[in-house]
Specification:
Keywords: Cytoplasm, DNA damage, DNA repair, Endonuclease, Hydrolase, Magnesium, Metal-binding, Nuclease. By secondary structure, this protein is α+β, with helices and mostly antiparallel strands. The chain is built from five helices and eight strands; from the N terminus they run αβββαβαββββαα. The chain binds two DNA strands through strand 1 and helix 2.
DNA sequence: GCGACAG
DNA sequence: ATCTTGTCGC
């Protein structure tokens, strides 16, 4: 698939994103997703499902395969989606919410990895990135839980959210079928001890093993 | 044109 | 992402 075809695919799928659904009533299982990189252009898609209340791991799958697309900013999903979908297919527990390592709405074409994964699976998704990629934002106050909006072309596309006092914020954006307010509530609830949400930390560890 | 650019 | 020494701040 070429760069042009990938961009056209994003434009085609973007209208299918649901940004109005506030999110699931009850979240019993949350999945974290991440991709690790090996030597010979290999990628490992990792998905870890945690019980939402206790954060205990209830299921996990890692799939290693050849990368089918280069890393291109803005087309991140075309590199990471295949191994992630392969791992999702082998899950025995169906998650109620997906926490993705990367952006959702906060994307040049408003269709980051979290949106793409949401549309393809139909599941509620949120995007959590470690660095700023698009838009502008102020540094939020130092207290845990404080945030400031990420603005792109005058629109709010996400939030810089402080998950630990005095530590660099994470960048949260809507993926699919979850409001921005609820996405941030979930991220805070899932990050009791560290900067990143526990499901993402678990998936990150798995993707490296 | 130049620099920046999720992982 | 990953590799990877030295350096900075608390």
């Amino acid at each position: 698939m070429s760069i042009e075809e990938a961009e056209a695919e994003q434009e085609r799928l973007r209208p299918l994103v649901d940004l109005d659904d506030p999110g699931p009533e009850r979240v019993e299982f949350v999945a974290g997703l991440d991709v690790g990189y090996g030597g010979d252009d290999e990628v490992t898609g990792a998905v870890v499902v945690l019980r939402s209340g206790t954060l205990e791991v209830v299921d996990q799958v890692a799939v290693r395969q050849r990368a089918g697309f280069p890393y291109v900013p803005g087309l991140f999903a075309f590199r990471e989606l295949p191994p992630l979908l392969a791992a999702m297919d082998r899950l025995s527990v169906r998650p109620d919410l997906l926490v993705c390592d990367g952006y959702g709405l906060a994307h040049p074409r408003r269709f980051g990895l979290a949106c793409h994964l949401g549309v393809l699976t139909g599941l509620p998704t949120i995007g959590v990135a470690k660095t700023a990629f698009v838009g502008r934002h102020d540094d939020p106050p130092a207290a845990r839980g404080s945030w400031s909006p990420i603005l792109l072309d005058g629109e709010v596309v996400g939030r810089a959210l402080r998950t630990r006092e005095g530590v660099k914020p994470v960048f949260v954006s809507q993926g699919h079928r979850v409001s921005l307010d609820n996405a941030c509530s979930h991220v805070l609830r899932l990050s009791p001890d560290f900067r990143l949400p526990e499901p993402i930390r678990a998936a990150d560890r798995l993707s490296r093993s």
